[in-house]
Amino acid sequence: MTLQVLITIIITALFLVLATLFINVKATFLIAGYNTMSPEEKAKYDIVSLSKFMGKVMFAISGSLLLLLLGQIVSSAGLAIASTILVVAISLFAVIYIITGNRFKIDKTTTHP
After folding, report:
1. I need a surface site. Which of 22, 37, 90, 110 has the fewest CB within 10 A?
2. DSSP of 64-97
3. Domain residue spans of the chain
């Protein structure tokens, strides 16, 4: 096993751990911007939904890193390139999804069942 493969395994494992923590709403302090808000500002956001979304994003990136790992094992530059493109695309999607439409903001004018 090469050092490159070992590093990819470690990084993928870290992403999987973070994804699990986000899905279980145990890592909200890692969400940039949210952790610096005042308690009044934090109350305006649905942190459970935001955290679960971040967990799903982390799982998707972990899958892309597994594709990178496979590419390293079979010496396929195509898989490595595809993995890199996927990581960038997933990251861009997540950022655009979060900052547009106030999807995770709690609307105080409507009641939820």
Report:
1. 110
2. HHHHHHHHHHTT-HHHHHHHHHHHHHHHHHHHHH
3. 3-99
pTM for this model (two decimals): 0.85
Query: Using a CB cutoff of 8 Å and minimum separation of 24, what contacts does 10-14 make?
Result: 11/65, 12/62, 12/65, 12/66, 12/69
Cβ atoms of 51 and 22 within 8 Å: the answer is yes
| Secondary structure letter of residue 30 according to DSSP | G
Helix (H) or strand (E) holding 8: helix 3-23
CA–CA dist 64, 6 (Å, integer): 16
Cβ-contact 67, 79 below 8 angstroms: yes
- At 62-100, the pLDDT tens digits run 999 999 999 999 999 999 999 999 999 999 999 999 888
